[in-house]
Each structure stands twice: as C-alpha cells, then as structure tokens.
C-alpha cells in the first residue's frame, strides 16, 4: 500500500534463532520473504501491492486461495509471505486470478475491503497463561485484530505488532479498551506460552498470544483463508516458517470487512481503529 511499487527479487528463506525486538515502523511488503540477519546471506523478495489510495503499481497476478466464497479483497492477502521461503501464490478451487491493482480501500478507511464479509471463525486454542481460549467468547463486542505469525521472525511479524501497538497507543483510552489484538503462532514447537507472553509484552502487555498443535493452527488458518506451511529446520540448524501476513479486523459484530496488508503504518491504524470500534 505504498506509492512506489516494490522491486521483485529471487525468493529467499530466512533463518532465525532468537526472538527479535522491533521499533515501530512501516510493515514490509506483503509478499516479502527473508533470510535472517544472522545468516551468511540475506535476500528479499518484494511483491505487488494494492493500488487504491496509494497510487498505481505494477500489475501482478495473484491466484485466490482459501475459502472460495471470499472475494477480491481477501484474495489479495492470500499470497504466502512474511517470514521464510516458499511459493508466493496459491489458488482456490475456482482457480480465479485477480490483480493487485484491482484492490479497493475500505470506504473511509485505510485498510483493504473484503468484497464478501467474513464471520469470525470459531477458534479454540491455548493462551499464554496455559488456559483454553475461545476467540468468539473472549472478544465478543470488541474490535478484534487477528494475525498469524511467530516470535522468532526477524522482520514482518515484529514490525506488524509494533505498528499495531504504536497506532493503538495514539487512540483514546476508551478506544483501546474496545480493541483486542490476537497473535496466533505458526511455530508452536518453539512458541511456548511463556515465549509468546514475553515476546508480545514487548509491544503491548494486553496483546493475546495463542498456541496449540500444528494441526489445529493450520486448520484455523485455512478458515481465515491464510496460507501457512509447517515450520521446517534446515541442515544448518536454521528454521523456515512460511505464513500469510495480513491482519484481519473483525468488527464488534464479529464480522470482518477489512484487512490490513503491506505498507500500513501506525498512523493508518490510529486513523481506522476509532471508526472500526464504532462498527463502521
């Protein structure tokens, strides 16, 4: 969602060892894939972004994936991205191709509209206190931002959490009380409840971290229409963790009508959250 289209480079995988900390900054491109800074080689892959309010960019075809009923807006967020190597595209049963330039911003908002609203999935995982967590029950009546990622990510995941935290801090106390941020790990073997708790506390102690079995998490990601691949360790000991990196925003009514892709800034979140809290 930036005016200048990102360059395209060969795909890369990133390797990680320890959780990273990040200062608030603009999120990486949605189709970025990285090799960690502690690796002997660091490469990036840039991807296309929606044109919308940010201006025109290079047209880049992206096959839609996940739930077939979800239309254009969400389809744009489905590219496999973020942290690790792997394919940058997937396809749904219909095999429909859409173009990133066709994206539209949500009316009056800085996120990307979903052509087909998505009800909040029935997610039941384990929180950082080791207790069962029912997403629908725990977030009833709240604006809920859901993100799939992992704590050892060196770039996109901490940047996204930092941007949300910074944007949220610019809103009123009344708005903050009505917003729930839920981070679902895509690396459950390493992201224990204790690890997730410590990592998320760096951004905002109120952020909720969820974990479970890989099968549970992959199943829920599919309901969100977010591509994930099981973490895999390389021969040199490094890890590759592939996951979609959009933030899905469920309104107080439990329905998502907007997602946040690459290029969203803290100022964008600060602008949209008060409106979304009102159920707009």
Please specify the SSE layout and strand pairing.
Elements: E1 61-63, H1 72-76, E2 97-99, E3 112-119, E4 124-127, E5 132-134, H2 135-138, E6 143-149, H3 156-169, H4 173-176, E7 179-185, H5 193-201, E8 208-211, H6 214-224, E9 232-233, E10 239-240, E11 247-250, E12 255-260, H7 266-277
Parallel strand pairs: 6-7, 7-8
Antiparallel strand pairs: 1-2, 3-12, 4-5, 4-8, 6-11, 9-10, 11-12
Helix pairs in contact: 3-7
Strand percentage lies at 15-25%
Counting helices, strands and paired strands, the structural category is alpha+beta
Mean pLDDT over all positions: 73
Rg calculated over all Cα atoms: 17 Å
- Summarize the main sheet: 8 strands, mixed
Which descriptor suits the 3D outline? globular
Question: Fraction of residues in helices?
Answer: 10-25%
Low-confidence parts: 1-79, 84-102
- Strand order within the widest beta sheet: 3-12-11-6-7-8-4-5
Series of secondary-structure elements, N-terminal to C-terminal: EHEEEEHEHHEHEHEEEEH
- Helix run count: 7
Number of strands: 12
Distance between the termini: 21 Å
């Amino acid at each position: 969602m930036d005016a200048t289209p990102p360059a395209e480079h060969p795909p890369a995988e990133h390797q990680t060892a320890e959780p990273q900390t990040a200062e608030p900054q603009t999120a990486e491109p949605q189709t970025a894939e990285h090799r960690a800074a502690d690796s002997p080689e660091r490469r990036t892959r840039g991807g296309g972004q929606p044109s919308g309010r940010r201006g025109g960019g290079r047209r880049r075809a992206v096959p839609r994936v996940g739930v077939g009923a979800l239309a254009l807006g969400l389809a744009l967020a489905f590219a496999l991205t973020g942290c690790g190597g792997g394919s940058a595209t997937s396809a749904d049963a219909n095999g429909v191709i859409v173009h990133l330039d066709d994206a539209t911003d949500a009316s009056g908002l800085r996120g990307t509209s979903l052509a087909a609203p998505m009800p909040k999935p029935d997610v039941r995982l384990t929180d950082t206190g080791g207790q069962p967590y029912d997403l629908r029950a725990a977030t009833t009546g709240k604006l809920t931002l859901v993100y799939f990622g992992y704590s050892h990510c060196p770039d996109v995941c901490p940047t996204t959490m930092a941007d949300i935290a910074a944007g949220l801090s610019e809103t009123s106390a009344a708005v903050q009380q009505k917003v729930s941020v839920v981070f679902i790990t895509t690396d459950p073997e390493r992201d224990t409840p204790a690890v997730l708790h410590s990592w998320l506390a760096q951004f905002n102690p109120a952020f909720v971290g969820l974990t479970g079995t890989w099968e549970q998490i992959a199943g829920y990601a599919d309901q969100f229409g977010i591509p994930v691949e099981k973490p895999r360790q390389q021969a040199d000991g490094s890890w590759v963790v592939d996951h979609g990196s959009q933030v899905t925003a469920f309104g107080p009514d439990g329905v998502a009508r907007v997602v946040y892709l690459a290029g969203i800034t803290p100022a964008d979140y600060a602008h949209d959250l008060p409106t979304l809290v009102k159920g707009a």
